[in-house]
Amino acid sequence: MSRFDEFQKSLGIAPNILARRLKHLTDEGLFERRLYNERPPRYEYVLTEKGRNFFPVLMALFTWGNQHLPAEEVAMRLVDAHTGEDRDPLLIDRVTGRAFQPEDTILVPGPAADDTVHERIAQMKAWFLGFDA
Q1: CA distances to 47, 79, 111, 113 from 117, in Å
Q2: pLDDT in tens, 49-68
Q3: Contact (Cβ atoms closer than 8 angstroms) between residue 31 and residue 46
Q4: Are 116 and 103 in contact (CB under 8 A)?
Q5: How far apart are CA 18 and CA 45, in angstroms?
Q6: What percent of the chain has a predicted confidence (pLDDT) above 90?
Q7: Which pLDDT tens digit goes with each residue over 32-44?
Q8: What are the residue boundaries of the HTH hxlR-type domain, all occurrences included (predicted)?
Q9: 3-state secondary structure the chain
Q10: Torsions phi, psi of 81, nearest 5?
């Protein structure tokens, strides 16, 4: 789907709400709005690189949601387009190939971190260390 009417039909939401959401996603750089018909003017919404980069996040959230539903309540499944086999996303480190796990992943300040960020990270470390005791 890339056109307003396709989104509206699929989502079943009011046009004004859809227009506001698409504008927000476009303003945030996830979609690019492209003219596909001049008379009348009609636009399609095409994923940008930023939008394509969000795809794994969306798939992970979708999978997480399904994992926490009883099997009989799962309305949609994520499958491989070529084989029809179920997909099971996994977040891995591109450098090491290892899966991310809470126990071996921490936050550290980045180059734009100010004193507030340093303090927040220190507080989170102290909070998590309290669970190890």
Answers
A1: 32, 40, 11, 5
A2: 999 999 999 999 999 999 99
A3: yes
A4: no
A5: 12
A6: 84
A7: 999 999 999 999 9
A8: 1-73
A9: CCEHHHHHHHHCCCHHHHHHHHHHHHHCCCEEEEEEECCCCEEEEEECHHHHHHHHHHHHHHHHHHHCCCHHHCCCCCECCCCCCECCCCCECCCCCCECCHHHCCCCCCCCCCHHHHHHHHHHHHHHHHHHC
A10: -65, -25
Residue in this structure with the two tokens 């996303």, named with its chain if needed:
89
> What is the pLDDT confidence band of residue 130, given thresholds at 50, 70 and 90?
confident
Which of 48, 36, 39 is closest to 6 using CA atoms?
A: 36
Res. 94 pLDDT band, cuts 50 70 90: very high
